[in-house]
Amino acid sequence: MGSQDVSGSEGCPFCQIANNQTDTEILLSDDELVCFRDVKPGATHHYLVISRRHIDNCKTLQGDNIPLVERMKKMGRSILEKNKVCDLDDVRMGFHLPPFSSVPHLHLHALAPASKMNLKSQLRYGPQSHWFITVDNVLSQLRTRGKVK
Question: What does the pLDDT look like over 9-21, one tens digit per residue?
């Protein structure tokens, strides 16, 4: 149902990163999550938090994934704090809605400062974007509906 073990996703570049099969610099990691820099940054600070377990996208999440998403959000905030982002109110954290995901593996974008993002980044990650949903909105929908619409 939209998820599988990392070993079953050899073609997925994020599964390869999670399995240390690339030269991507891992900034934070634990048993469940991995954090690294976005290769096409949309802000001065732009990090991705992925689950080690392959999950297709935010639309495949269900209510029992709430703790995972909360941990992704916490790691996103941690990497911003670790990199001296002072204003944690000036950040954007969220997911692209399919079919607008560049990589079909659940990944949380953590960007800062949001107020300094250029127009292209605003279109991709900003509040008016039709293909970006904030992590708080995902959590709210999972709590109330058990899924992301």
Answer: 668 999 999 999 9
